[in-house]
Structure formats: C-alpha cells, structure tokens
Amino acid sequence: MLNIFISLILFFSASFAFQLHGSTKGFPKKAPEINNLVTEENKPFNFESLKGKVILITYGYTQCPHVCPTITAFLKQITSILNEKGYKGKYTVLFISVDPEFDTPERLKHYKISKHFDDFIFLTGKKEDLKKVWKEYNVYVKDKGIVEGVRIVDHSAKVTIVDKEGFIREEFLSMYLPVDDIVKDVEYLIKH
Fold first, then answer.
1. Residue among 106, 177, 163, 97 nearest 130 (CA)
2. Domain ranges in the chain?
3. What is the CATH number of domain 21-191?
4. The dihedral sign for the CA sequence 25, 48, 128, 144
5. Whole-model pTM?
6. Up-side HSE of residue 52: CA atoms within 13 Å toward CB?
7. Model confidence over 122-155: pLDDT tens digits?
C-alpha cells in the first residue's frame, strides 16, 4: 500500500513539473563559448564571468528599423519586472551585434545609454569572430546594405535563454515576446 501511495505522489509530482514556455527542442545543451568579442565599453567579454546568472541572448543591430527595437522593448519590460521582483544581478541580457561594420563599441554604448538598457551588455567584434558566434547559436545573418536609405541586415529574430550552469534551455523564435512567460521561465531558472 505504501509503495502505491509513493508511486502516485511521484506520478503527480512529475505531471505538475514546471514546463518552460519557449522552444525546448534539442535543449538543454551546453552553450557555445562567446570569444574574442568586446563590450560597449570596448572591454574584452568573458562569457565565463556570467556563470551563475541566467542569460537572455538576443541578436540585432543599432540601425535596425523594426525587429530589434521590438525585441529590445519586450526585453526591457522583462528586465523591469524581474528587477521589481528582486532579481536584479541574477540575470543579464546580451545583445550580440549582427552588424560589425557599423556597430562599434562607441555606437553600442551610445545606443545603450540613450535607450536606458541598463541590464544589457552589448557585444561586437571582428566579423569573423561574430560569424563564429552566429553559426554556433544558429543565427541567420544577411547584410543587404542600404535599401531605400535604410541599413538592412536580415537576421534571426530570437532570444536564447541560458541557465546558471551555462546550458541553453530554450529559445523564443519571434520578435513578439511573451513577457509574462519569459519572466516565469527566468524566475524558475534563477531559483532552480
């Protein structure tokens, strides 16, 4: 009788386990290292320094007319809610440039300050180093140059979430991010 009771408890516990809201296909997997990039402060970036934090990674460029401003606006909402809940310092947002030709550290710093992206780290670097990161994180990038007076770089619209141990746990594959779901997922990953 006791064995049946324990089995039922285990069954129901597993049934109500937390489910992440993003795409989890192929995850968890060890997040590839991000090497040879610099921050908006023009300092070498060390991916290992973020161990112990949940990391939200997005990919974009400062001259982006639509997709990047939409994603970063959602991410700003997410960081605001997480900070209100007392999680400041337990997560970070990485913005990896897809436009190394124009996204210099100085431009990224100006963008960060002017948009008040306090909880973000902006990364850029040499094109060959960025290409390696894009490939390892499965990010599509195609520089189309100037189109009708606007700089256009087609790229994947997504956010990759890495847990405290450095494993990719999920991705959100859209520019329209479900703010409440991502907050719940980050909160869960911070606590567990």
1. 97
2. 21-191
3. 3.40.30.10
4. positive
5. 0.89
6. 4
7. 999 999 999 999 999 999 999 999 899 899 999 9
